[in-house]
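Dear colleague,

Thank you for sharing your sequence with our group. We've completed the structure prediction you requested, and as agreed, I am returning the results in plain text so they can be pasted directly into your records. Please verify that the sequence below matches your submission; if there's any discrepancy, let me know and we will rerun it promptly.
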Amino acid sequence: MAKKKILVSLLAISMISALALSGCGGSKESETGETKDGKTLVRFMVGGSAGELAQYEKAVDAFNEQSDKTQVKLIGVPGDNYNEKVLTQLKSKEAPDCFYSEEASYGELNNSDVLLDLTEYLDDGGSLLKRSDVPENLLESYTFNDKITGVPVDCNPMVIYYNADLFKELKIKTPQEYYDEGKWNFAALKETSEKLRDASKVGFVYENYWCPLYSMMFSSDEDIYADDMKTSGFNTDRAKKGLEYLDSNIKSKAFTYAGSLASGESADTLFVSGQAGMLYAGRWFVADFTDLGFTYDVAPFPYFEDPSQLMPAMPATPMVINKNTKNPDAVWEFVSFYCGKDGQKIRMEGQGNAVPTVDGLSDIVLTGTPEHAQYFLDAVDPALVYPKAEATHPGLTDSIMEEAEKMLVGEQTAAQALENINTVVDETLNKQ
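Please find the predicted structure tokens below.
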């Protein structure tokens, strides 16, 4: 990956600082809820890097240019404390009218009843964003107590990235070739990783968070949690076999655990340097992989034994509206633009870093690299989204990952990890 020049870095820091400072202090505009020219003022908060905030700013500027009655102020939050900033701001006079709600806080916000019910807006035939524009798996994930409290800003279905030139050089069958034969399953991923390992390469780089872990442990024909959120599927044979599969491949070094890498190394740096053959990620790497010294491609995440069990994961951050906003119609005017076709197109022009959730924008994904980018689009409908049971029980996901981590570093067996995961899940779900 090319190093950023000092000038670019300084400009990026300056831009983040300016955006962050735009949300500080009480201006006359924020106190009155109107701009100097009489437009309704909407405060929009989001966290991100300099590049991400620049893309968000483009969409905000486009909205402001075309709206006669609403003006949006972007409040950019740099660094790692975005969730804390949101929760703090919601208790102050400077509370945002709308904001990105990350996984770590979305369930808590719903539990606290601070989010506006968007159902009526989505069912309005005149809205720029309608219920039919939201993928069903996301719509269900954003529905709490029969209220739809979020809409997707975009999504990031995960796929397998692989170094096509490396596979060709080593004469190893590619994931695409397995897929064409109808054999791209867990056994094929293991076989491919072992061949890369035997050629003194890193086979598959595994990162420990809910997306890859649950793709290993579950299939689309089984639910992770029951509808009543009192029982889970962590005690099933499929979960057991998935965890054992992961453990055995880590121990055989067919898979490499990213948490055990040397300082400065990561899944993407190993891939970019040509050392790793495969990694599992969303579309966020596409923009970073434009200047690689080799050809790469993507394939679907493999299925367990049968194609019907395919279980890709899909992070998808919702945009939400503060229930206490004074001007919900004006806020929805912006949210429906930003999360609708026009806003998503503006934010993802070029190679982009995500996948649109509305129809008519597939060319954004299919233009440029990789060759089989269609797999990003194919993964949206069957994808696993962040489990609602974990969203409404803050800390549960972290506890599950901690037990998996102990297995990955050799501190406990797969059987012990699964037993401990089931214990923490059952205790959390049934806590009075």
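Summary note from our side: Residues 159-313+395-429 form a domain with the D-Maltodextrin-Binding Protein; domain 2 fold (CATH 3.40.190.10).

Kind regards,
the structure core
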